[in-house]
Amino acid sequence: MVRTGEWRDDREALWELSRGGVITVARLVEFGVPRKTCYRRCRPGQPWQRLLPGVVLLGSGKPTQRQLVDGALLYGGAQALVTGLEACRRQGLRGAGIAANGIQLLIPASCKVSSVGFVTVERTTRMPRPVVVDGVAMAPLLRAVLDECRRFSARDPVRALLTEAVQRGRLNPEGLIRELEAGSDRGSALPREVLRDVLRGARSVAEVDAMAVWRRTGLPEPLWNHELRDASGRYIGTPDGYFKKVRLAWEVDSYDFHFAREQYAGTLERNSRYAAEGILVLQTLPSRLRSEPGKVAAELVAAYNAANSGNVLELNPG
Fold this sequence. Notes:
alpha+beta, three-stranded antiparallel β-sheet
């Protein structure tokens, strides 16, 4: 215990007690700072600021993201873990296009801590074993991804995050489904739907969208990302979808990819290999899968019917 007022002459020690300038009022009181002084120094124009109930930043400037994370953990208590988008990004995912919405915490169900300010608290009876990255205790990536997905009511961010988690995070779709089954049903409908498509073989958001369009058609399910070879074993292509019965290849090709010089030449070579084997090709731009799903579905049905009638053409309506 430090006598009243001594903390004013030992600012460096006060900072060292904190997490990069973030500290609880209780810890300040232990160091000798009167409780009333803690809150008085957080008033407008004063040198500190209140981040959360009982949590102070020893500075008046805008807090960094790390200070917000540390403040959330101090507020949540010793067993709190960061989860959701913040934990995903700290474990290597970009979460492109997904706006950050504060810090999400997991805490044991018995803890009496509520959501406040920029912190969303989720009580759980299934506390995971923590992963510590750069001194931040957080939920493992598999749990963090699903905790974030459960918060969405729109399909697009769920598709984007789950697809990235499987591609970049190397998460197993079956493992994600098992985690969904083990947890609450709350908010699980969209993740379940997207994961069904991932399990069918989708490797990207565009391919998940393609599966959604295919379901509109009533056509038999194609082989997804199936490698095709000729009778001699030479590689033909790996279409996004392949209707084996009618020999129809469906390629979802981006405009930028398709018209870059090297990639364009590769696309022509690929389509020539398809033609040499009597395989019909339908090419679709990824953007149309969302902007014109009905039209794309109609084009897919038309291409299927043409292939079924033996009318072998290269179709490029996109």
